[in-house]
Amino acid sequence: MAHRQTRTAAAQEAGDAWLARCSEHPASVRRAWRAETLAQISSGEFWLIAEAELLLTTMHALKRIPAEQQGPVLVEPELNKAWWLVPLEAAEELADVRLLTVHPVGWKLSCPSTGEPIDGRLWLSRPDGSGLLTDPAVLAAALGPGGSYRLPSEVSR
Hints:
Order of helices and strands: HHEEHEEHEEEHH
Strand order of the largest sheet: 5-2-4-3-7
Low-confidence stretches: 146-157
Shape: globular
Structural class: alpha+beta
Oligomer: single chain
Mean pLDDT: 89
Number of helices: 6
Strand content: 15-25%
Distance between the termini: 45 Å
């Protein structure tokens, strides 16, 4: 059992380290988490933020996206909100997805550490330290009528 806890602690530290590096002030992010408060991390250098409803939109999409393709998703159930971390080029690709609002560069996301919820916010799909983000084509497809992403026909041959 101790080995499993060690792996979990290592995974949490990897996710926290990555999130802190995504901030202009990593030490401030770490201080906020040590004080059990949310840290402000701005979008734009590493990722953008796509906001959606939690219950009807995000939960539906998460069922349709394979776990290995899910990037970080932060949620606040009381507000019925979810924030997907998506690549910088996602704004154009997700512009026509009515169920999502892609926030502009510089928009601040109030983030807990990857291990514990803070003020009702928690990572439904935690950052793992790898930098994996949800592919906007996969996210758009999961929210669309067909509900699943298919490789373009020229790739699947």
